[in-house]
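On clarity, I found the account of how folds are encoded harder to follow than it need be. What matters is that the chain and its backbone geometry are given together, residue for residue. For the editor and my fellow referees, an illustration may be useful. For illustration, here is how one protein appears when written out as sequence plus structure tokens:

___
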Amino acid sequence: MPTVYEAGKQYMGPESTERPLSMSRHETSPTTMQPAGNHRPNACCFCWCCCCSCSWNEDRQRAWRASRDTKLETIPNCEACLKPTPDEVQGWAQSFDKLMKNPAGRNVFREFLRTEYSEENMLFWLACEELKNECNKHTIDEKARMIYEDYISILSPKEVSLDSRVREVINKKMQEPSTHTFDDAQLQIYTLMHRDSYPRFLNSAIYKALLQSVSRSSSES
């Protein structure tokens, strides 16, 4: 797909003949859920947290996996990080900024978002951070296009929730992509996670189990 577009033409993303199954950002299932197959994987993506357990809906998980054939699948399941200290884990409840600035905190929060079917918010935020570190013009163009296709296009199963004003700004900036093409959208998603998902995360079994785990480990050492 070209990176320079005709004057006045909005960037509408890649063409597709069908739209994957969509689901509510915060829809949950009343039943215990497991992925396809006869065994249940370890829901935690980081080895030091063995207490949290995430449920999966078999049908939705199968459809979700089938729809995720995108170029940004190189993003690892979790970021490399050290085991958090009790003070760090407790600090995540004091400030969303502290949580998001800590790789271990982002991993735990991302695991929680996955249980709410809104992991795309964190993936988008991480992709924007990665884009900001690029200097090569060709790489910037390519990554901006992939971010658009994966998280902005209405045809994507991982489309993030953005208002029309921000979408219009992005469409204009995509005519000449830069490291700041998605700044407004990234801020809007960050604010959404802060106001909507973060309070539920602090009350989640995932966070409480981790807090108890690190506290117990600290008292035993």
Q: What stands out?
A: The mean pLDDT is 77.
